[in-house]
Amino acid sequence: MGLSQMETSGGSESSGGEDAEARRSRRGHVLAELMQTERVYVQELGSILSGYKEEIEKAENQHLLPAALIGQADVLFGNLHELFTFHQDIFLKDLEKSISATELVALCFVDKRETFFRLYSFYCQNIPRSERLRETLVDTHLFLQACQLRLGHKLPLAAYLLKPVQRITKYQLLLKDLLRYSECGSMTTKLQQALDCMLVVLKCVNDSMHQIAITGVPVDLSQQGELLMQGSFLVVSENKRDLRLRIRPRRRHIFLYEKAMLFCKPATKNSHNKATYHFKHDLQMSQIGLTESVKGDPRKFEVWRQGRAEVHTLTAASPDVKRAWVERVKRVLLDQLNELKGERGRQYSAQHRTLIQTSSWDLVPPAAQPQRPSATVTNPTRTASCDTHDEPCWSTDPSDDDDEEPEHPPAVGCALAALSDYTAVGPSEVSLREGQHAELLKVGCAGWWYVRLAAGQGEGWAPAAYLDQRKTSRSSSRSHDRLHDH
Q1: Phi and psi based region of residue 270 (left: phi greater than 0; alpha: psi -120 to 50; beta: remaining)
Q2: How far apart, in whole angstroms, are the C-alpha atoms of residue 105 and residue 82?
Q3: How confident is the model at residue 9 (pLDDT cuts 50, 70, 90)?
Q4: Which end of the chain is flanked by fewer CB atoms within 10 Å, N or C?
Q5: What is the CB neighbour count within 10 angstroms for residue 76?
Q6: Comparing 8 with 352, which gets the higher pLDDT?
Q7: Which residues pair with 268 in a beta bridge?
Q8: Do 418 and 466 touch, CB atoms closer than 8 A?
Q9: How many alpha carbons lie under 13 Å from residue 424 in its C-beta half-sphere?
Q10: What would the mean pLDDT of 195-223 be, rounded to a whole number?
Q11: Backbone angles phi, psi at 399, to 5 degrees
Q12: How far apart are CA 269 and CA 408, in angstroms?
């Protein structure tokens, strides 16, 4: 199809005709890539279902399965079949009908945004369960090896289960390109709406990938509601029952759910040589208060248990990050108030009048202020790797905790090769090209490696399933078995 000649709507082309024609041609190339990659994506989802899931569910194969996998196909694959049906029977057909105009393509995303969010939210929420199950199986189990061999897949199952994550990332990149090559007007308006939809889904994907790494949680995360936000903070904790007790700043990764706030420590899990977010403690949202501002630093706010017996002062990476968190916590607290009815609601409201404060220095009369311990935090001399930006850390130096066990860092310096292309989801990751060489710098959590790309192409996190040790590399204390060497 002559996609470069299909653009018939959206914006004026009277000025700079040659430039407009060049933009139209580029849009045509992007639309062609969208169609081609969508068909490949549908084919890949179908191959996973037929080559793995159906084989696992066959009665005659049950004796070949590891015990942990019997009856667990839905845990391993989540709602992958529903994703496949949606893309094959609905979204791909919509794109094929709409490919003649960029605006119509944008509407495909906008009209299906609720379906995208519902399906991909479910898939992402299942990722931690699937990851835990796969860790007990190991991708090199003979049955899964046989499935991979029959399919002719060069990547293990772990990599193919990341395909939905990669697809959402690809959509937002393609939509950004279409927006860049489009004229102002209704075309750009629709494209921006489509991009906004995919960015919301991408945030869900990113949050869920970080949840994989939480260890030692005594509560069921599936019962804590939706994961609303997650990020890295410096935290100072105080116990008002002993005013002398003041814990120095510590790096904590905080996960905000609808019903709880989890404080986790970025650490290294020695048993598997991989970084994790190790659970330290939680605050139930029904029991906490919020102080929006802390004197002396626009990046700080407080969360505390009722009565301020336990106070946590949080320092965000920037004032903007702090504001976003404060607004989200306030919304959760106010939603709780709105859910309560009648006398119970009035009692709860009266109780909560002092729970949402504007500043930490107006809690006591002015005359008493000198006696109140300062709520400000001096900056620690050690700066963690993620102090200067809002990108959540997959790994950080845990030496600021007294309760941390001795570390045994994995060997570094292994030469690696990319088995297939991979598109980075966030700024902490790196994109890979098939055959590209890299060096292992750090082993992270949940099957992620921190690598330096050859020829000065940058460094960052990449999924280990997409990487293989080169035969010429130095031996490492830890390696991933593969079916094929590349």
Answers
A1: alpha
A2: 22
A3: very low
A4: N
A5: 20
A6: 352
A7: 275
A8: yes
A9: 15
A10: 79
A11: -70, -5
A12: 9
Tell me: pLDDT of 202 over 60: yes
Higher-pLDDT residue of 451, 476: 451
φ and ψ at 239, to 5 degrees?
A: -120, 110
Using alpha carbons, select from 460, 462, 464 the residue that is nearest to residue 478. Answer: 464
Q: Which two tokens stand for residue 100?
A: 């003649």
**Structural element, H or E, at residue 32:** helix 17-48
Q: What's the whole-model pTM score?
A: 0.61
CA distances to 1, 234, 456 from 466, rounded to whole Å, are 34, 33, 20
Separation between Cα atoms, residue 344 and residue 284, nearest integer Å: 19
Structure tokens given for 344: 């119970």
- What's the pLDDT score for residue 161? 92
Segment among 229-233, 414-418, 478-482 with least mean pLDDT:
478-482
Say if CB 385 and CB 394 are below 8 A apart.
Answer: no
For 34, the token pair is: 């969208």
| Total Cβ atoms within 10 A of residue 408 | 10
Q: Which residues lie closer than 8 Å to 273 by C-beta, 6 or more apart? A: 408, 409, 410, 443, 477, 478
Distance CA 454, CA 64 (A): 41
CB 33 within 8 A of CB 170: no
Radius of gyration of the chain (CA): 25
Contact 210, 262 (CB under 8 A): no
Give one word for 92, left, alpha or beta, with left for phi > 0 and alpha for psi -120 to 50: alpha
- Tell me which amino acid residue 479 is: S
Cα separation, 247 vs 239, whole angstroms? 9
Among 72-86, 138-152, 312-326, 381-395, where is mean pLDDT lowest?
Answer: 381-395
Enter the tokens of residue 387.
Answer: 């102090």
> Tokens 């029959």 — which residue?
150
pLDDT digits (tens, 9 = 90+) for 171-198: 999 999 999 888 777 788 889 999 998 9
Which tens digit of pLDDT belongs to each residue from 105-136?
999 999 998 899 889 988 987 887 888 788 78
d(CA 149, CA 417): 20
Residues with Cβ within 8 Å of 373's Cβ and at least 6 positions away in sequence, in order, are: 238, 243, 246
| Both tokens assigned to 91 | 């979204």
Q: What is the C-alpha to C-alpha distance for residues 347 and 340, in angstroms, rounded to an integer?
A: 10
Contact of 272 with 410, CB cutoff 8 Å: no
Non-local CB neighbours of 149 within 8 Å, separated by 6+ positions:
483
| Position 345 pLDDT exceeds 80 | no
DSSP type of residue 195? H
Among candidate residues 385, 407, 382, 391, the one with its CA nearest the CA of residue 267 = 407
Q: Quick one: residue 459, left, alpha or beta (phi over 0 = left, psi -120 to 50 = alpha)?
A: beta
Please count the CA atoms within 13 angstroms of the CA of 4 that sit on its side-chain side.
7
